[in-house]
Amino acid sequence: MENLALIDSFSEFKDDKLIDRVTLMAILEDVFRNALKKKYGSDDNFDIIINPDKGDMEIWRNRVVVADGEVEDPNQEISLSEARKIEKDFEVGEEVSEEVKLIQLGRRAILALRQNLISKIHEHDNTNLYKQFKDIIGDIYTAEVHHVRPKAVILVDDEGNEIVLPKENQIPSDFFRKGDNVRGIIENVELKGNKPQIIMSRTSEKFLEKLFEQEIPEVADGLITVKKVVRIPGEKAKVAVDSYDDRIDPVGACVGMKGSRIHGIVRELGNENIDVINYTTNTQLYISRALSPAKVSSIKIDENTHRAEVFLKLEEVSKAIGRGGHNIKLAGLLTGYELDVIREGNPAEDEDVELTEFSDEIDEWIIAEFAKIGLDTARSVLNQDVNDLVRRTDLEEETILEVMRILKEEFDS
């Protein structure tokens, strides 16, 4: 062998765990045949023998002997006088096998050959990597933080594969440092040119579902089925579970004694509040359970519009809506119904309504201003003097009067 760089190429790749011996030999032969085509116009009459373990190879060109002066294709034919320089007893019509030395391809061709070899190996590795991660989309995966960027965290797994965790796929409370281990699901694998880009997610509903499978034995064994998961990442989630075995309490099994089983999942998700409810095909009961922790008085369902009017006592309304409206939003997503809260009866003078219930009419920052001075219900605001409220808050008189009008209309109605 004349070219040490090429031998180095063999030893560089022959032990690569992502490529077997047969595949490597096929790639090497393909690379050499391309070089021969460029040099001689055809590779049909060449035999290539490769030993990648030793970094050794032989190339033999087979040509037919023709009479002197009758050579039409120098690649396929050899003159009798030239053939007899190799062996004296050759005759016209016989086949001559002659070894082709790499140096005959030319220095540039050899350098191009090495580069082509490296390119083919990387292409093979990328194809394998793409297939490997395509097969585990939706599964939990763990990798280490390699670099934290403004729009994404770059992770590296034990095999050195790069995984991207985009900002929008991170839980709002997530905070990562270099070297941290991160769990998420493989959400997608995208081809960027010839290189696969592996995308991880921690905000997907599938991540929470897979955490249930991983952390709760009955779910992993199939005794409990996760029917549906809805999330507002980092804030709140609702998980509907069912069991075909009447002896198993699916909610109790998932939550565990004093929340022992679900605690690890909650911690993994940045203290996301998780409601686990029993799934049922009874729509009214399902909606009622979905609105937990609120106690529903009655429900009126319109199957045509997929809407439901939910009747609740005044003290249950704020529980049904939840902080920031999260509870009722998730209940609607879980059941597939648009839920309208109806307050039961007329509020008596001694009854009150929390200000958060008016978040659809009053801006949250205004409600927060009242909360700063201890006013968190409608009547607590209505009982105040307007001038006193102007003095005690950062609100304009006009704003306070508008709030009082809204609150008064609620009680008048």
TrEMBL record:
GO terms for biological process: DNA-templated transcription termination; transcription antitermination. SUPFAM superfamilies: Nucleic acid-binding proteins, Prokaryotic type KH domain (KH-domain type II), Transcription factor NusA, N-terminal domain. Residues 6-125 form the Transcription factor NusA N-terminal domain. GO terms for cellular component: cytosol. Its main location: cytoplasm. Residues 202-279 form the Transcription factor NusA first KH domain. It comes from the Bacteria. GO terms for molecular function: DNA-binding transcription factor activity; RNA binding. It is found in: Cytoplasm. Residues 285-345 form the NusA-like second KH domain. CDD domains: KH-II_NusA_rpt1 (cd02134), KH-II_NusA_rpt2 (cd22529). InterPro entries: KH_dom-like_a/b, KH_NusA_2nd, KH_sf_prok-type, NA-bd_OB-fold, NusA_N_sf, TF_NusA, TF_NusA_bacterial, TF_NusA_KH_1st. Keywords: Cytoplasm, RNA-binding, Transcription, Transcription antitermination, Transcription regulation, Transcription termination. Monomer. Binds directly to the core enzyme of the DNA-dependent RNA polymerase and to nascent RNA. Belongs to the NusA family. PANTHER family: TRANSCRIPTION TERMINATION FACTOR NUSA (PTHR22648), TRANSCRIPTION TERMINATION_ANTITERMINATION PROTEIN NUSA (PTHR22648:SF0). Participates in both transcription termination and antitermination. HAMAP family: NusA_B. This is Transcription termination/antitermination protein NusA. It comes from Flavobacterium zepuense.
